[in-house]
Amino acid sequence: MSTDYNLYEAVIGLEVHAQMLTKSKAFCSDAITYGAMPNTQVGPISLGHPGALPVHNKEAVKYAVKLGLACQCDIIPHNYYARKNYFYADLPKGYQISQHNTPICENGYIEIKLKDGTEKRIGLIRIHMEEDTGKSMHDQDVYDTLIDYNRAGTALVEMVTQPEIRTGEEAYLYLSEVRKLLRYLDICDGNMEEGSMRCDANVSVRLKGNKTFGTKVEVKNMNSIRNVQRAIDYEIVRQIDAITAGEKIFQETRTFDAMKGETIVMRSKEGASDYRYFSEPDLPPLHITAEFIDAVKAQMPALPKELFHQFTAVYGLSAYDAGVLTENKDVASYFEAVLKHTGNFKSAANWVMVQVKGYLNEQALEIKDFVLQPAKIAEIIDLIDSGKVSSTVATKEVFPVMLREHHKSALEIAETLNVIQESNSDELQKIVDEAIARFPEKVTEYKTGKVSLVGLFMGEVMKLSRGKADPKVASKLVKDTLDKI
Ligand code: ADP
Ligand code: MG
Fold first, then answer.
1. Domains of the chain, first to last
2. pTM
């Protein structure tokens, strides 16, 4: 008998850890440069030497509030840290400083757009601050695990969703939104491969219609958003198969093997009480004042949703175009900068989405490394709009040269290339007359009603002008001239 997977639904909650892009760590002044020589960014506080005292990093608190505001969370004015005690080699103090009962933000949501165009809000339970651990490396030495403590003490926020996600795809969309938001806010680089954004997926399944949740399994170690989706999709099928076979689901932590596309048991879940939480005696409680929140609000950048609205409602772009342009903050800023120099919104959108992004993809470059200033894109749009070059010539001939000779104006380049269209009607009229004079018998045929012959005359005009005749102006002149004969 084959399993009917449709009888079940999955219940998924995600925990995202994001490393804050602060200059120094959460509770001391050690730097946090990724890829630095192991164990070179480790002062006494990072290493938990006896007597070393942690100090709040105000910038990290600001980042957490920024994120909370962007997610419509309640900012909790009075909150403090706790010690989460456990023994692990990458945790030098033997405990992690983390917000346990009093997260800095509660409630709020992230909105995702489903395939059918509807929007779904994924509720957040909390966003809290904590410090990162060191990093164990199991593949650097044949016999031993090596540990790099550079990461220990890095400021993190953890965002925990309500169990409101139902499919691997929704998880994918949620994480894409979160990453976009972190990058817009400039508080985390969102790089899952380097581990600066990490996600644990809590997955359970239940028969559709059931009100109670099934036993959840936590899956870790996915190094991309796509792999989170794969891990969840695998886990859902595994759990349904197990239940169908009459087995029990154990509450455990599993790891994702990206090569095999499978989840594998890592450990059975320790009870929360094992952590022996108590409030951190070395750090004073945090008071988030209304003034502090206002100051953060004043520094908030425009968020993707606001830009999307502006691009569609004010500039009249399609939802698709606005989506592509707001996907990345730097691309959106570049597009807005182009608009400072041209009023042709649609054309600016096309140039940024097609030519600019196409070139960047091909060269594996980020837009911040793009050689052409936004004004240059406006120049080339002006060249087309003023009828000086056709859009094909602009794309195929002018733009590639601009990429190499970016100090020159688009017009200079078009002139040097000798591709400026002839749209001066006096000049063109001479060419049209000459083209028509070359085929007297065709003129007679045209006069008897063979209007398709306009094409032949146009071909001749293009030849005589060496391709520079503005086709729109020329074809009108050809017709007018023929009609007057
Ligand atoms: P824990 O204490 O084990 O970390 P929490 O209650 O804090 O568990 O929840 C952690 C995450 O697991 C949250 O995102 C939550 O929405 C999700 N979650 C809770 N129960 C379930 C369940 N039965 N199935 C799937 N996800 C769940
Ligand atoms: Mg958990």
1. 5-292 (no CATH), 302-417 (no CATH), 425-484 (1.10.10.410)
2. 0.86
